[in-house]
Amino acid sequence: MIGMAGKKRAAVLPLAVAGLVLSLFPVVYLHVASVGELSPITHTISDYIFVDNGSGLLAVTALSLAAASVGLLAALVRSGLPRRGPVAVLMGLWSAGLAVAAVFPTDPTGAPTSFSGAVHRYAGAVMFASLPLAGWLISRTFISSTAVRRFSVAAGITSVAFMLSHASVVYPGSGAVVLGLFERVLFALLYGLLFALAAAVLRRGVSS
């Protein structure tokens, strides 16, 4: 028989997964609609705010992803994850970083860094560091999941590569501009990590 905690977990987990799926539609649409206008190799996803309807659609993606992540954290907590442990803090930072990055847009490529652009940049650094570390801690201390661990490690490595790829923008002529490519690979891995976490929570609920 499923207890009250199990029922609450079963209720929140589908909502979290639905939020993850919903968050994909606007950003995928922007990739398709902006073909020939922005390069997925050199431009970051944040640059889609400069295309038609890009600001609103990116906000839907970021806020849906943030809400889904909070829902996933709630499901983890109801599965036994400590409410005030480091994982909760890291996933909170990931979700907050998404929301802050949506509120403070990036600057156009080549433009001087504004206050909004600086906040956006630091929010991105925090969130890209937080989620891979949270996933790795979960796989080590809470749920033994090979998929979660592998996605976490791959996302962590790609996050570092993405940060380093900014050198080609900060120091023009220092190399090919490929930060857009690294960011898209990173987001694909982060989505994979979140879906792997959802699957791990579901398996934990079934076995408990």
TrEMBL record:
Taxonomic superkingdom? Bacteria
* Keywords from the UniProt entry: Membrane, Transmembrane, Transmembrane helix
Residue ranges annotated as transmembrane are 54-75, 87-106, 118-139, 151-173, 185-202
Q: Name one Pfam family in it.
A: DUF998
For whether the record's keyword set contains Transmembrane, the answer is yes
Name recorded for this polypeptide:
DUF998 domain-containing protein
**What species does this protein belong to?**
Saccharothrix hoggarensis
The top of its lineage is: Bacteria, Bacillati, Actinomycetota, Actinomycetes, Pseudonocardiales
